[in-house]
């Protein structure tokens, strides 16, 4: 891995203000420079050595980054610093939706270089619905062992790691890979795949909730330090139920015209996850403060 020049410049900028352990960086040392005197002696310029003093930094100049490298706690999980890597789908997984050697190397490299907490890419909780052709999943017990290879490797460098759990819902590639329709709260067309999903029946939702709960169990057994549940962006299953733009259900407990109805699937999912993994297993939720779309 070779970082881009902007990344190098950013890291160098940080190094001006703090060392890796979070202490204030030592003041720059005076440097000697050769200064040419204006008078000449014997036809030759006389060169003198003079100490060039660094300019004193004014109060408040530059960011104070000692806090960036200080530890913090998320429930029972203590993270060594505040560098958190956001989830990003790499499309490098094995065909069975387990982390590949290339993926493991990618995340280990981030841990080795100082990231405190890594949130991996989307992990589908449903074997019938992939997010990408080569994205990861935590929908089956056989995947636990290969995920444990990842967590063990990252933990060697003192970093914490959590998977992002999701059901792709309307963004599922099932129409292309399985020949089945994608699913959602109502009939919608996905902007990313241009496929139209079918509306889920109320009686189908408990099974999907249990998929999230069992995926969380597998994450815990695989050695992850917690989980993140994706329910953002008017996207995928939980995010779609939350959004009035996608949830047009008119009857039942998951109706789209009330806040309570749109929230119910997400709250039921969180409750069931807690029943399975316990209250001490850290859990975060990815949710939008503003969908930035009119009507959302």
Report on this model:
By secondary structure, this protein is of the alpha/beta class. It contains seven helices and twelve strands. About 30% of the residues are buried.
- Which regions have little confidence, pLDDT < 50, spanning 5+ residues? 17-60
| Number of β-strand runs | 12
Q: Helical segment tally? A: 7
- Using the alpha-carbon principal axes, give the shape: globular
Based on secondary structure, the structural category is alpha/beta
The portion of residues forming beta strands comes to: 15-25%
Mean residue pLDDT: 85
Q: Summarize the biggest pleated sheet.
A: 6 strands, parallel
Question: What is the helix/strand order?
Answer: HEEEEEHEEHEHEEHEHHE
Amino- and carboxy-terminal Cα gap: 40 Å
Helix content: 25-40%
Radius of gyration, CA atoms, in whole angstroms: 26 Å
Which tags fit this structure?
296 residues, globular, 12 strands, 6-stranded parallel beta sheet, two-stranded antiparallel sheet, alpha/beta
Short description:
The protein is 28% helix and 19% strand. It is built from seven helices and twelve strands. The strands form four sheets. Strands 5, 6, 7, 8, 11 and 12 form a six-stranded parallel β-sheet that branches.
Mind sketching the topology for me?
Layout: H1 5-15, E1 31-41, E2 44-52, E3 72-74, E4 77-79, E5 84-85, H2 101-112, E6 117-124, E7 136-137, H3 144-155, E8 160-166, H4 174-177, E9 183-184, E10 198-199, H5 205-221, E11 227-230, H6 236-242, H7 259-277, E12 283-286
Parallel strand pairs: 5-6, 6-7, 6-8, 8-11, 9-10, 11-12
Antiparallel strand pairs: 1-2, 3-4
Helix pairs in contact: 2-3, 5-7
